[in-house]
Amino acid sequence: MRIELVKRPQRSALFSALSPFIALALTLVAGAIMFSLLGKNPLDALYYYFIDPLREVWSLHELAVKAAPLILIAIGLSVCFLSNNWNIGAEGQFIMGAVAGSILPVMYPDFQSWVVLPLMLIMGMAGGAAYAAVPALLKTRFNTNEILTSLMLVYVAQLFLDWMVRGPWRNPQGMNFPETRNFHEYAILPEIWASSGRAHWGFIFALVAAVAVWFMLSKTLRGYEVKVLGQSPRAGRFAGFSSAKMVFFAFVVSGALAGLAGISEVSGAIGQLRPTISPGYGFTAIIVAFLGRLNPLGIVAAGLVLALSYLGGEAAQISIGVSDKVARAFQGLLLFFVLGADTLIHYRIRFVATGSRKLEASHGNA
Amino acid sequence: MGMLEAILITIATAATPLLIAAIGELVVERSGVLNLGVEGMMVMGAVTGFGVALISGSPWLGFLAAILVGALFSLLFAFLTLTLVTNQVATGLALTLLGLGVSGMLGESFVGLPGVKLGSIYIPVLTDLPLVGKFLFGQDPIFYLSLLLTGSVGYFLFRTRAGLTLRSVGDNHASAHALGINVILIRYLAVMFGGACAGLAGGYLSIVYTPQWVENMTAGRGWIALALVVFASWRPWRVLAGAYLFGAVTIGQLHAQALGIGVPSQLLSSLPYLATVVVLVLISGNRRLTMVNTPASLGRPFVPDR
């Protein structure tokens, strides 16, 4: 038996809407099989992964804390991916945004005023954007593959942060721990609703960014330009759009959002810089972007799903003793199913018995 | 053994996994497929190679398992991109993310355990030659295999009919299809060869280079291998040169760290990554070199018409 693809006359609206759900369902089935192999009751495991974290108010706050960076980064990535710019270095832009945004509270701790926080957010965005501009510059100026350069810069950023917190920025009163001083109260991003949990304003930023980028993509000429240049650079050139400018636009927008995610995480959730400030948000956000079908509003939902997988990983480790590493495997699996299910949007899948192929060939296929 | 020779040997050990993974990816890309999952296949090879060698006590069974797992893992990518025609860039990324996740899960019980080592070969008289004896005749068997692999892939691609067929698929899949060549089958085989090589390269890391398992122990080497293919403009012998250049940078910065030359160790550790960026800029800036050699169908989807 063979699998054969038949191109649909036009993209299927039905499968366009269904494909993320098909992918989620397949991931759950694969997850159940995986847990059975690990010797756990699959229903129990899936319950602790996907239902248990949603039962308490504080836990919903944690969901928002984890979802905020994922959504912010993924929204920026959607602009990149739609315009055919493969920025996979968001993890590095997240880190550089966090470092740039931390300059004021770490180096000038005595400068305490309400202007500090807005300045930190702006500097965080600028830091992320500047770091993302490097692969954009190399791509436009030297024709360098942006996938490889943006990824290499992730390792450089991680090492840079490590050096900063162990070296020049180490807390003078910190007993030699590799961390910066704690941010003062004016440098802390406040909670949305402090009496019930930890969720901070980063989640609000994510929602605002989602609506803003959705508006830009669907209602403005710039958004049209993003999609035209992504699908057909040639057509874009005839329309007078500059693909070099688009490379910069996409990278700078996504770098700024990743930088905002970085400084929000540090000032909202952590309160200081440490050698590691992200459990791979920049890479998981790639999965979020595709699961959300590169649509900013879809990305909000997808960000919550992936945030749930982080929380579920922790919950399952505590309650049934499954390693939290399983969550990473889950996330990778999900992206596979998402990409596979997307095939249904453009193609009908036909299963062909091997015998019929010869018959077809004898009809003068050539 | 002299100091210089010792350094040469460590450079060879650092370069060998890069060389093997990059040669595999070179064949994949020559067939017109861009598999960005090298890092994921490599880390899967590292964890299974380490685990099987540990349990069986035989490094050779470890290598065999690493090769098999690499090839099987690449089949996932092949099925999605070749049969379901998904985007190759996104699917390659998915393979890397999945590999890093699954290997972390599988390897959890291996953390901190000492690995099984692979000895070096010894040929009486030759290995004892002064200056070059140990470098030429006294290294681990996989080192020799990597050189043999480079030579055979070069011969296969440019001196055999099958190699010509593979390159034609990579340069113009529509014409190749019209000539009756089974484009999809050839690409499946190429992707699996690349997976097998990446798996072996990963096994080399966890059995020879640092005989232990650490999560994410590939540390970007799969991506550097991808960059090497571009650097080498899709030519096997240039991959060899590139891999040894990177081996030299890696070992050079380690020696500089050990000497404590007053530069932060993190800056030195970032040198191989920065060098990758610099090298890519230098090569890609030369449009003629890259344009001529890039397989023309690289990364483009193919659906046979009927």
From TrEMBL, chain A:
Keywords: Cell membrane, Membrane, Transmembrane, Transmembrane helix. It comes from the Bacteria. Pfam families: BPD_transp_2. One of its GO terms (cellular component) is plasma membrane. GO terms for molecular function: transmembrane transporter activity. The keyword NAD does not apply. It is a multi-pass membrane protein. CDD domains: TM_PBP1_transp_TpRbsC_like (cd06580). InterPro entries: ABC_transp_permease (IPR001851). The chain crosses the membrane at residues 12-38, 58-81, 88-108, 114-134, 146-165, 199-217, 238-263, 283-308, 329-349. It is found in: Cell membrane. The keyword Translocase does not apply. PANTHER family: ABC TRANSPORTER, PERMEASE PROTEIN, GUANOSINE ABC TRANSPORTER PERMEASE PROTEIN NUPP. This is Nucleoside ABC transporter membrane protein.
From TrEMBL, chain B:
One of its GO terms (molecular function) is transmembrane transporter activity. It is found in: Cell membrane. Pfam families: BPD_transp_2 (PF02653). The chain crosses the membrane at residues 6-28, 40-57, 63-85, 97-122, 142-158, 179-205, 217-234, 241-261, 267-285. CDD domains: TM_PBP1_transp_TpRbsC_like. GO terms for cellular component: plasma membrane. Its main location: membrane. Keywords: Cell membrane, Membrane, Transmembrane, Transmembrane helix. InterPro entries: ABC_transp_permease. It is a multi-pass membrane protein. This is Nucleoside ABC transporter membrane protein.
